[in-house]
Amino acid sequence: MNGPNFRTLDLNLLRVFDQVMSERNLTRAAHKLAMTQPAVSNALNRLREAVGDKLVVRSGYGVEPTPKALAVWPAIADALRQIESSLSPGEFVPAQANRTFILAMADATAAELMPGLVEITMREAPGVSLRVLPLSTRDPRRLLDEGEMDLAVGFFPTVLAELTGQEQAGRLPAFDHQRLFGGEYVCVMRNGHPLAHVPLTIERYCEAHHLRVSFTGRPFGFVDEALAALGRQRHVVLTVNQFFTAGRVVATSDLITVLPRHFISVTGMEHEFTLRELPFVLPPVLVHSLWHRRQSQRGDHAWLRAAVVAATRKAFQGRE
User: Fold this and answer.
1) The model's pTM
2) Cβ atoms within 10 A of the Cβ of 261, count?
3) Can you spell out the DSSP letters for 92-118?
4) What is the pLDDT of residues 203-221, one digit of tens each?
């Protein structure tokens, strides 16, 4: 932060700044801080004068951070969490906890991980509840930033590339991640499909009728991108946003689709499918957990991440 004299800076202002950045709303921040809204506004004004930047500006029913605020917040949030963790070590006791965690993941991932995660939760933290939201984006950072979810689990290649670039540039990313498992995509069709017993060439693949899985509903996905790079395209008859829906439709039609290989065994429909290797190259599926770095030092969040890792190991034991 440019300008302020750190020796005279009231560090309580940083707590207010951190809460406002988390909530993006002065009223909610004041409630979390047990302060009045005028007191929060006054603290922000003092910090603005110290750093020479507006930090946040009003937007609709809340506030939006300035580029300066976004740049300094990760370091400030990390420092505050580390202090909090140091002063209150071991404050999260799973057996005594009573809170809700919100996770976002695709239905295929939830089918793999949730049985084990529920078992761990009921055994270690019976007062904890879990909410699983559908993963509707390949970039959930805004939702994590705004506190809409505690943890996102999925395939985030663009996000991870950006975070790596920030680290290589010497910047502290606002988000952290952990690899959970890897896999590959395969072409899936019903038993008895005309392509089930002939070589699946790129020509036959593109001439077939396709079902696309798109979490966002976009009419162009990573399969289409891979085909476009080869000067090819496919004929998509139907686009859905769930792997289970795709499996059910493909099992009862002449549409073909692309699904994660690891997902097939948990559908309960694997005996209805013929799997074929794709006649072109797709990058492997590398599923990561992703969270906001301000959560990293929290005992409850650390427990959640460890539980997800344990559930993943149980689900994929012997398969990787």
Assistant:
1) 0.70
2) 15
3) --GGG---EEEEEE-HHHHHHHHHHHH
4) 999 999 999 999 877 888 8
